[in-house]
Design brief:
The protein has 259 residues and is an alpha+beta fold. It has eleven helices and seven strands. The protein has a single domain, classed as Class II aldolase/adducin N-terminal domain (L-fuculose-1-phosphate Aldolase, 3-Layer(aba) Sandwich), CATH 3.40.225.10. The chain starts with a helix and ends in a 6-residue tail after the last helix. Bound molecules: zinc ion (ZN). The site of zinc ion (ZN) has 4 residues, from loops.
Length: 259
């Protein structure tokens, strides 16, 4: 393994251990997974069964983009066929670990420009909303400027879908619709009855997005005790989103970008 690949892996390990730290309440036990792009050809993704809190080098598997993305474009596959295809996508067939069931979803995120790291968690504060009857309505507006600076102008909302390939396909379709609407990749995916995906250029950006989205969720739940959320107007959201000084802040929060 080259030193660059080792350095990228240690960043991912650090990110995963951070996201799995019980103090944040983002993920417990085997919940959550994470990934990082290595180059055009391949990426690291968490191995099935590894725990975010404690995952070390053996908790991650190197897989090829081409084979994983081909699963998204190909025919429906049985659970056994998906398992087989994921094994075949490993860079080193003899390496330990089996790629996470959400590997195809990670590939769909990492193929986007400006996305190098992906962190997926099940924060309690966020699932209070994704598991509620108010899922769509509660997440239809923005609450405060720093939410927009860290998390973008809107999240992508994903209705509950079977984990694995069906979910990855649904996510990819909704990301593409978002790209058409906003002209850039989303920073946040919110999955109904499931959790959060944070898409960042760096590991730090994934941590920042996750922390800010969890804060947003806490604020949002609190507003329902005070008569419900007061969303910012579209004009106010656009103003924050296009303000040069806010762009400057975004640049600080996104130190290195693709291309
Ligand atoms: Zn999950």
């Amino acid at each position: 393994m080259t030193s660059t690949i080792t350095a990228i892996l240690s960043e991912l390990i650090q990110l995963s251990n951070h996201l799995g730290d019980p103090v944040y309440d983002y993920a417990i036990l085997g919940e959550g997974n994470s990934s990082v792009q290595i180059d055009e050809e391949c990426f690291w993704v968490k191995a099935s069964g590894a725990e975010m809190r404690t995952a070390g080098p053996d908790g991650f598997v190197q897989v090829r983009f081409a084979q994983v993305l081909a699963m998204l474009d190909g025919p429906e596959l049985s659970d056994a066929a998906v398992r087989q295809a994921l094994t075949a996508a490993k860079m080193d067939a003899d390496a330990p670990g089996h790629p996470s069931v959400e590997t195809a979803l990670h590939a769909a995120c990492l193929e986007l420009p400006g996305v190098n790291f992906v962190g997926h968690t099940h924060p309690t504060a966020i699932n209070m909303i994704t598991c509620s009857v108010a899922f769509t309505e509660a997440l239809s507006g923005r609450l405060f400027p720093d939410e927009i600076v860290a998390c973008g102008p809107a999240p992508v909302l994903i209705p509950y879908t079977d984990p694995g390939l069906p979910l990855a396909r649904e996510v990819r379709a909704r990301i593409h619709a978002y790209l058409v609407e906003y002209g850039e990749p989303p920073r946040v995916l919110l999955l109904q009855n499931h959790g959060l995906f944070a898409l960042g250029a760096t590991a730090t950006q994934v941590e920042n997005i996750t922390a800010m989205m969890v804060k947003t969720a806490r604020v949002l739940v609190g507003t329902y005790a005070m008569g419900g959320p007061h969303f910012m107007s579209t004009a106010a959201v656009n103003r924050i989103y296009t303000r040069p000084d806010e762009h400057y802040r975004q640049a600080i929060m996104t130190p290195k970008d693709k291309e």
